[in-house]
Task: inverse folding
């Protein structure tokens, strides 16, 4: 249909002529049915983009209304077309995927009755039998083990007197049993495939959004960087707020759904802390949301955080990060519906938020982000996205090639880097360093593994009948070395975090540190288990002695292996 194609073509144009034409098309298409799957997807993409980046309140109102009722459009198409729309995340269609236990439990809470086990792809795996074996009452053992009943048949019989789906019944059982701590491993090993019927779900891509009080139109269109990247990152943010727990939970739901309907998930959202969700307003209705982790899911040394990019409450992109000392390893992912927006501007805003909250002055992008073992990123020329923002390859030969290729691109606007060149460019990390960043502050990512090796060595040398005994010995000795007089004054979360990181800190011989270094380390270690881990991230970046000693210990460990 020509009108749908046209709306899709001009969705990201904001001149007065295009704006008027968009509004006219939006109005005319309200009661017009798209016939084919491709037409439906183009119309849906256009409506999603206009809802996130509206020319006016009226543009937003019509696009939003069209998306809220989009499942009704789907109900009017034939079965063949519906099947072609599977796994698009569009309201009225199903999502079919083998979700992890963390996402499955989220679905059980938030999509009750709409998720079922897909038995065609599950095929009675042995892992499912192991789960069910833990649910049996003694009187059921012989029948279950007889070979006369399949997993599916047994679940149907066992759940016959309860309402809801087979998936809902199964997850209710897992929540009730004594084996709750290990269900994640057992469930993931079972490799269950699920079908999630989105129907009119608020979590479909058609409707998923964080409620916005004031929609902000794009009167001047997409933003471009008015300042050099580094200068923009250093510019203080006008507004960063930590959401209350209720709003934090709602934001986590938006993030979880945004990924789940797209067959994605990330540790940062699966274990996000509703008490540590920050929202940074970066103007024109856009926000960067940072998620801290629940204390029990934090990593021993680094501070791992996820982020979500919102445009008028609509999730348009996401990413995760590993913050260690004064650097952050991260990357950006923009959802397909919102390509052609202001990705570069918003990515700089993400770095700006990390600089503000964690004090990061070095940003690292791994090769996967721009092409290594990532064909989509390779073909899209993602390397140049990072390069134009100031990222540079860390290997000299790659840096020289990048400089030469950039010169060719400037000289000939028709030139395109070939795949061989792009693969070479994607063979090492890229860094963006802010003014004042020092080489002595850099902590090589491979040293995270080396730090873990140091922890094993420290625990092994501590002795003790069990690993728990060894960990207790290391923790108590470290507490004594640092002058921690009474761990009973620490919260359970703070003591647990200390136990996790203690073997790494102990490997740096802190007993020889100055009084000030020990005092600041006591504060640092306690903040690791506090409610808000961002404070730990900033303090870690300021502890120069710990950084220097851990770098030295890692280098010595690597030399001893060589």
Result:
């Amino acid at each position: 249909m020509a009108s749908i194609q046209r709306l899709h073509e001009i969705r990201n144009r904001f001149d007065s002529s295009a704006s008027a034409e968009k509004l006219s098309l939006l109005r005319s298409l309200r009661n017009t049915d798209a016939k084919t799957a491709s037409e439906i997807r183009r119309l849906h993409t256009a409506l999603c983009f206009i809802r996130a980046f509206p020319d006016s309140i009226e543009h937003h109102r019509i696009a939003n209304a069209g998306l809220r009722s989009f499942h009704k459009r789907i109900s009017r198409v034939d079965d063949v077309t519906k099947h072609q729309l599977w796994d698009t995340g569009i309201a009225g269609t199903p999502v079919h995927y083998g979700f992890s236990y963390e996402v499955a439990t989220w679905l059980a809470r938030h999509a009750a009755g709409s998720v079922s086990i897909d038995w065609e792809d599950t095929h009675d795996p042995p892992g499912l039998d192991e789960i069910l074996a833990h649910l049996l009452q003694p009187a059921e053992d012989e029948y279950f083990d007889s070979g006369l009943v399949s997993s599916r048949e047994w679940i149907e019989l066992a759940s016959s007197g309860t309402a809801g789906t087979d998936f809902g019944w199964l997850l209710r059982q897992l929540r009730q049993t004594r084996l709750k701590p290990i269900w994640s491993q057992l469930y993931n090993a079972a490799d269950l495939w699920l079908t999630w019927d989105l129907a009119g779900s608020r979590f479909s891509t058609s409707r998923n959004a964080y409620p916005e009080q004031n929609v902000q139109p794009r009167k001047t269109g997409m933003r471009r960087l008015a300042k050099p990247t580094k200068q923009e990152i250093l510019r203080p943010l006008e507004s960063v707020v930590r959401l209350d727990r209720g709003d934090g939970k709602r934001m986590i739901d938006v993030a979880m759904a945004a990924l789940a309907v797209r067959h994605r998930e990330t540790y940062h959202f699966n274990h996000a802390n509703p008490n540590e969700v920050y929202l940074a307003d970066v103007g024109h209705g856009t926000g960067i949301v940072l998620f801290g982790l629940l204390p029990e899911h934090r990593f021993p040394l680094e501070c791992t955080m996820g982020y979500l990019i919102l445009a008028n409450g609509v999730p348009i992109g996401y990413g995760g990060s590993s913050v260690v000392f004064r650097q952050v390893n991260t990357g950006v992912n923009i959802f397909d519906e919102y390509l052609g927006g202001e990705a570069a501007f918003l990515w700089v805003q993400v770095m700006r938020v990390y600089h503000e909250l964690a004090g990061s002055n070095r940003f690292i992008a791994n090769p996967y982000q721009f092409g290594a073992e990532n064909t989509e990123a390779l073909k899209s020329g993602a390397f140049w996205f990072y390069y134009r923002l100031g990222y540079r390859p860390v290997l000299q030969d790659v840096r020289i090639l990048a400089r030469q290729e950039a010169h060719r691109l400037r000289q000939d606007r028709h030139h395109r880097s070939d795949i061989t060149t792009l693969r070479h460019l994607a063979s090492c990390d890229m860094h963006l360093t802010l003014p004042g960043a020092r080489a002595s502050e850099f902590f090589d990512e491979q040293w995270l593994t080396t730090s873990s090796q140091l922890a094993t060595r420290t625990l092994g040398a501590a002795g003790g009948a069990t690993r728990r005994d060894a960990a207790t010995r290391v923790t108590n000795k470290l507490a004594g070395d640092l002058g921690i007089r009474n761990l009973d004054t620490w919260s359970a979360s703070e003591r647990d975090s200390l136990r996790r990181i203690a073997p790494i800190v102990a490997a740096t011989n802190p007993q020889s540190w100055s009084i000030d270094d020990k005092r600041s380390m006591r504060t640092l270690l306690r903040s690791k288990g506090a409610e808000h881990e961002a404070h730990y991230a900033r303090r870690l970046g300021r502890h120069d002695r710990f950084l220097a000693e851990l770098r030295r210990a890692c280098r010595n460990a690597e030399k001893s292996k060589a």
The longest strand covers residues 314-324. The mean pLDDT is 94.
